Amino acid sequence: MTLIDQLQSQLQKLPPELSENVQAKLQQWDEQTALLTTVPDYPELLLASWVKVWTSSLFVADSCIRRPEMLFDLIESDELFKAYAETQYAEKLSKLTDESEAELMVSLRRLRNREMVRIAWRDLAGWATLEETLHELTWLAEACIRFVLDFLYRQACDKFGTPMLTSGQAQQMVVLGMGKLGAYELNYSSDIDLIFAFAEDGVLSDRKQTTYGEFFSKICRKLVKMLDETTADGFVFRTDIRLRPFGDSGPVIMNFDGMENYYLTQAREWERYAMIKARQVAGDEYTGPQLMKMLHAFVYRRYLDYGAFEELRSLKYKITQELQRKDRLDNIKLGPGGIREIEFIGQAFQLIRGGQEKSLQNRRILEVLQRLGEMELLAPQDAEQLIGHYRFLREAENHIQQYQDRQTHDLPQDPPVQLILAYSMGFSDWPQFKAKLDDIRRQVHDEFDLVFSLSKQDKRNLEAESIWAGHADDEELCLQLLDLGFSSAEEILLQIREFKKSPAVKRLTAKGAAVLDRLMPQLLESVRQVENPDETLKRLLRLFEAVAGRNVYLSLLYENPEALTQLVKLSAASPWICDYLAHYPVLFDELLDTRSLYEPLKKQALQAELAEMLADINIQDTEQLMMVLRKFKHINLLRVAAADIMGIIPIMVVSDYLTYIAETIVERTVSLCWRIMTDKHGAPPNTDNVSIGFGVLGFGKLGGIELGYGSDLDMVFLYDSKDTHALTDGAKPISCSHFYGRLGQKVMQMLNTRLLSGILYEVDMRLRPSGNAGLLVNHVDVYEDYLRDNAWTWEHQALVRGRFIAGDPAIKTEFEAIRNRILCMPRDHYSLKKEVREMREKMRENLDTTKAGEFDLKQSKGGIADIEFIVQFCILDQAAANGSLVTYTDNVRLLDGLAQIGTLSEPVTEQLKRAYCCYRDYGHKQALQGDKAVASEEDFAVLRAHVERIWQQVME
């Protein structure tokens, strides 16, 4: 039975417009195979797909008719019905034995045609997923490039000699695959974009003294010819090398130094965009990674690269101009809502954020879109929609090209061919397919426009623009400033001019100056919305001057009006914000997301965030660890301050959050330092990563969960080891006492070292046994002995607010028991009162520096210190009989405990709590205004009088 007879039932289901052509092809097949002596049996799976595949692809049908033995081989080898492994193409090529370039060109083209028939058949039959099709096309191209390069390299080495590296190794060139080849996303009839490079220059010892550049240039030209040239057998892959440095006018191949110089000094933004997908596909596996590392630094900046938006917008403008060409309207790659627009959306985010977000350093667009949805940089539903649309467009692209193996992305204009495309995509007719396609392209183009919409600054207020540009005389400009709501117009105009003449602004590049010219009118317009525009603008001008050297921060504000709005609001409320951002401009990015900006993280979330930030840092890279810890602190301190400034969280909660941040940092610092020390010296006996035998105690505001914005950390380090002379178990063993001493020093170094990003915290260790004269780290037994036998009363007062912060849980248990025993020791009431009172008077004499009419919230009479001393005296006096008093370390709950046992009456404790919270609230606000915690005596006269009266009752 002929094939056409076997397929009659399928042919009858075809639309009449399609049936006639495919029947003609099947008739040709039957005539061709009738001349053969043996024809294999056709599997049912093959027969079920035959009509659809040959209807959808003239290339497949004609290729099979010309070479029936090729299809028979695909059937008998079973390769038509199975997906390939990545190495399979290389294995097939390795069996070619051709010795001349001409012979190899024939063999390569025949192998390519066989494999392209196989790939198209599997795709059109629905046996392969889109990913399988794209991967196999990529693997085929990559294997051909590698095979031809190796062939030509061996041939050239035999003729000219072998280029060598200075290390003595043979040197091969490096081939970069760009675009879809680099991303494993090659479409069916795609060309391949290649860039060539070699590591080191030199001269061969042949008769002509051939340079390495000449040697490799000859190989490059032959490689392109062998892949690209169309012969009677067709071509292998159309090859494009125009993406190389300097394009068509540049050398075919450059050495690494030349490449690096080009990309550092002359490359344009679109070349960064193109390099996102770059991947080594062939050549020297020793030097290739060096080149990729250099290019990675070119593509992915370590900061959030909002400056790239300007260049990306230029690219978008060029794309938009192209879209208006009539010949682009039906192009599903370059036309409106096409493949390029989806790729552009993903790659823009990669350029801007990829340097900091490693998960975006991905060549594959579907995975990038998925990640953008997970990060909510795109709405998750929009990301999923773009993924689905990309799949549809890529399948349509392959089917368009599989029809005749032509490199086209245009929709067919001939109605029969339109119907063939619709049929291959599973639609019953062209209008149905076209409606679906048009809907997808509209949605893609809408998302493209949304993501890259022109910012609102382009519609900025003309008055604000005139002020910044100085387009009028001073009188007119002052009137315009008054209209905008500024009260001191002449002073503000002077401030603006001083800012424009400042060295930082004068040093701006043309690009940076252009961004500033667009941003400043928007700033003036935004500042008019706050209650204190004059002061707010002055603060912001100082901030802008401090960060002007980095265009990226000004670009961020220009591109994100909401971030500018948040900055203006916060700056109006607090000069501290401007000062903080001036010192740590990396925090500008936090202004982008108001959800995270005004929602400080609690302890567990802080621990998770810090763990994620440190996850990829080498434990031995101490400087990088310290930089990440500082960035973590700055980000989270800003969140607390922003929520505090805007009145979202109360003072008690502010201190909680600030304490959580400090605890999280100290915990992680101890953990990191433990790992660093044990990597070097091994661990002390009977320890592991949890039971480390080391603990950190917090005192003062840290212990009392009452940290402020500029608080230092009062801490004590303890260790526990049965044998302090025992050695650690590492390659460089030291005694346990030395180990823990060095561990304490390491923790101090991490916290105290001043980097460009500042220090983590000022650390005060004077509460350790014997103060600054004592050991940095003390054994728990020594610590208890000291507290019991040698400590001053003020040190027991400090212990009231002592709390375990970080380290070994066993140390926590031991410390809490020690604290209970010491605080609950019996004390003489009158002697204790006298000592506490004398210490308070001494403290006031040394620390209260207020002038007449001023009230130091902490040190003056009736202030915070008086309240703390009252609490500490009462705890030390009553704890022996009432052990529950020492449960807590914060003053508010300590006062509640004293009220419960009747030591202080409830009205008295309420007055003290109210005064204490009011003082602290005012102190926090003063800190955010950049001022000291000093007020007028009149401001807190009533509260102060209450505290002084209670002091007299309790302490005199």
Automatic annotation (TrEMBL):
SUPFAM superfamilies: Nucleotidyltransferase, Nucleotidyltransferase substrate binding subunit/domain. The keyword ATP-binding applies. One of its GO terms (molecular function) is magnesium ion binding. Residues 463-956 are annotated as: Adenylyl transferase. One of its GO terms (biological process) is regulation of glutamine family amino acid metabolic process. The gene is glnE. The keyword Transferase applies. It comes from the Bacteria. Pfam families: GlnD_UR_UTase (PF08335), GlnE (PF03710). Residues 50-289, 565-817 form the Glutamate-ammonia ligase adenylyltransferase repeated domain. HAMAP family: GlnE. Its cofactor is Mg(2+). InterPro entries: GlnE (IPR023057), GlnE_rpt_dom (IPR005190), NT_sf (IPR043519), PII_UdlTrfase/GS_AdlTrfase (IPR013546). One of its GO terms (cellular component) is cytosol. Residues 1-454 are annotated as: Adenylyl removase. Residues 314-451, 833-924 form the PII-uridylyltransferase/Glutamine-synthetase adenylyltransferase domain. Its EC number is 2.7.7.89, 2.7.7.42. It is an enzyme of class 2 (transferase). Involved in the regulation of glutamine synthetase GlnA, a key enzyme in the process to assimilate ammonia. When cellular nitrogen levels are high, the C-terminal adenylyl transferase (AT) inactivates GlnA by covalent transfer of an adenylyl group from ATP to specific tyrosine residue of GlnA, thus reducing its activity. Conversely, when nitrogen levels are low, the N-terminal adenylyl removase (AR) activates GlnA by removing the adenylyl group by phosphorolysis, increasing its activity. Gene3D superfamilies: 1.20.120.1510, Beta Polymerase, domain 2, Nucleotidyltransferases domain 2. Belongs to the GlnE family. Keywords: ATP-binding, Ligase, Magnesium, Multifunctional enzyme, Nucleotide-binding, Nucleotidyltransferase, Transferase. It catalyses: [glutamine synthetase]-O(4)-(5'-adenylyl)-L-tyrosine + phosphate = [glutamine synthetase]-L-tyrosine + ADP; [glutamine synthetase]-L-tyrosine + ATP = [glutamine synthetase]-O(4)-(5'-adenylyl)-L-tyrosine + diphosphate. This is Bifunctional glutamine synthetase adenylyltransferase/adenylyl-removing enzyme.
